[in-house]
Amino acid sequence: xxxxxxxxxxxxxxxxxxxxxxxxxxxxxxxxxxxxxxxxxxxxxxxxxxxxxxxxxxxxxxxxxxxxxxxxxxxxxxxxxxxxxxxxxxxxxxxxxxxxxxxxxxxxxxxxxxxxxxxxxxxxxxxxxxxxxxxxxxxxxxxxxxxxxxxxxxxxxxxxxxxxxxxxxxxxxxxxxxxxxxxxxxxxxxxxxxxxxxxxxxxxxxxxxxxxxxxxxxxxxxxxxxxxxxxxxxxxxxxxxxxxxxxxxxxxxxxxxxxxxxxxxxxxxxxxxxxxxxxxxxxxxxxxxxxxxxxxxxxxxxxxxxxxxxxxxxxxxxxxxxxxxxxxx
Length: 329
Hints:
Layout: E1 15-16, E2 32-33, E3 83-90, E4 96-100, E5 106-107, H1 112-122, E6 130-132, E7 153-155, H2 156-165, H3 169-177, H4 182-196, E8 215-216, H5 218-228, H6 232-239, E9 242-245, E10 253-256, E11 269-277, E12 281-290, E13 293-302, H7 307-320, H8 323-327
Antiparallel strand pairs: 1-2, 3-4, 3-13, 5-8, 6-7, 9-10, 11-12, 12-13
Helix pairs in contact: 1-4, 1-5, 2-3, 2-6
């Protein structure tokens, strides 16, 4: 239940991510990302307020920790992958099977929408309520286009599905805008949920992923994937192959999944999300099975349109080519 209080203010503790010029991936040196709601916005008790003490500044590492190559279970050369960041995590045992630049704090583009979906579902709002796309949902950051024109009306359920399956930005924006307390309260809930999940190197400033200030690390995203897999609707919607909606009378729009792997019979994917903005590169996260292992795969900043999916296939093939690793499970 969200309660309104008198003379309220919302202030999200500033999360500071300090990066030196040695990390050349498009973020400013010593850049500080903060979020503060307007002072006249009403305050709501977000469902994760109990974790507010965790909202403290964090600093990202810019030098790779010493690591023995023998500790990497999945034998795969770093230059075999097109993604700058790669992370493969055994969900059941907690083992890290593979890591490449896992410590980097990176823009995560539309991977953001997994957190958007969890916050929407945690609020237990009516999924059948009809929401309207307005001018407030137009992308003024990247000026991307959308097939959902102004005045389109869809249920919260359908908007959630389009945001997860097809990465529809106006759908994600409308979901955040129609949250109790509006967008400021929604963004605060995103950050509080992240901290509740132990994502200490993560920051959200908006619900679509269009902002390059939505930041995280591969291990943090693996935690988010695990949490998202607990929501049956996120599993269903993020792996739907296609879906048709009627946002206006007489209009039929067919959407398809942005991740082609969900239609590949060689994959058993529980949760999937892709993402792209120039600053983030091509991003892909999967909660899936590699033979008899439940794993989270995080791939960030690939440089080709399908390179992330190609990297996922290379990881699966490398795993299957190592009998000792498969037998270990």
